[in-house]
Amino acid sequence: MADHYIDKKMYYHDTDAGGVVYYARYLEHLEEGRFEFCLSKGVNIAESAKEGAIFPVVHFEIDYKSPARYGDQVRIFTSIEKTGFSSIHFLQEIKKGDMALIKAKTVLACVNEALKPRAIPDKIKQALKKA
Amino acid sequence: MADHYIDKKMYYHDTDAGGVVYYARYLEHLEEGRFEFCLSKGVNIAESAKEGAIFPVVHFEIDYKSPARYGDQVRIFTSIEKTGFSSIHFLQEIKKGDMALIKAKTVLACVNEALKPRAIPDKIKQALKKA
Amino acid sequence: MADHYIDKKMYYHDTDAGGVVYYARYLEHLEEGRFEFCLSKGVNIAESAKEGAIFPVVHFEIDYKSPARYGDQVRIFTSIEKTGFSSIHFLQEIKKGDMALIKAKTVLACVNEALKPRAIPDKIKQALKKA
Amino acid sequence: MADHYIDKKMYYHDTDAGGVVYYARYLEHLEEGRFEFCLSKGVNIAESAKEGAIFPVVHFEIDYKSPARYGDQVRIFTSIEKTGFSSIHFLQEIKKGDMALIKAKTVLACVNEALKPRAIPDKIKQALKKA
User: Fold this and answer.
1) I need a labelling partner for B100 at 20 to 30 A (CA). Which of B44, D66, D100, D123 fits?
2) Which sequence spans correspond to the domains of chain B?
């Protein structure tokens, strides 16, 4: 299982008229999970962008197993499946207690300011390997 | 190619600090594409929910090929790959002119108000087949 | 009454668990209304930012009179109340048919890239006066 | 000064192409502040809706004094200005360290499931008075 998690509460702004969390909203929660995961390894993605290493999402897939609702407390687990020359593959899971709500896979590319692929900075690659 | 499309402009609220459309935002645009696709076949998903047929997203995958930016005009193409007993598989593409920005696949389940799987109402199934 | 309007449909992503459009969402719709209003006067706010005239919102107030719901078609009216040396005051209204849903007032400042106040470029000021 | 606050970090999904937090996003943060304020007084707004007391926003006003950016840590202060028969007036402030970013005022109405005004349940009114 993933070695890193953050806790989040679902608020009204997360929900839709179906009474559950809107399907796109989880992508924001998952972004937060990845950001905090990286930060816990000493990698600040907000700073790395200023240094010319930007990490856009190039592929994303998600299974919605059970819905979260207004007021729910969920836990977002994040781990790295693999890192390539200029890509990072994340696996993430959102759980409410023992119940799996979401499983997701996100592939980030590493690009420069012209949005062209570049090698992941070595400092970042080494830091994430400690995962 | 898909037989249905809608046109949309990207606004400031769609963008992020990277200067491009935020990765979760496309899921809202794609929802609009599916809604209008269904409506063009005579199926109003907003109404069907009131009649006990709700269509939550159970699986979603997306490839981000090129980013959209503030002020861009994009076209969202929608088609159905297949329909099952209680699922609908959509294929969608977002293009800016001739350039493909997004390819996405969305699987909707058909559930009742207790969020249990149920057969897609026949009227809806027949209408969507005319695609 | 305002001389400019856009039409918009409310989608699932606009709604919350109360079954109505979430209170923050109208600010996105109102942004679209202001963008299109300016464009109709020949002013492209997305372009002006590249030329060093950025228009952040510095004050906003809104009355929520009646809620919009999933699938509703609304009309967003926009007019300018006044323009100052470095500010533009918009009045906006959202209606569903004859029913007023929203009344809002937005004050934009004109700032440079360092986010310091600057005069509204003359070309823009003249164009908006034609309102 | 307000007796209640929550801390929040600004993520990529909060930002726009201007490199700062999008003006509508603060309304989500402010909602979280009010929710947690009420919870700290023993009032769970998510639960009260199930019991027929719903609190839609009927008026909102906000001054944007300084922008928050990606990665910023902000503090959201919440207090009650006054409560009426069927309304609650909140005052809120968002600060980054000592710097005020946002001042906002929100008026909630108390309505029943038909969205008609009703008295604030006494239990809630008493609990909030302890503020």
Assistant:
1) B44
2) 4-129
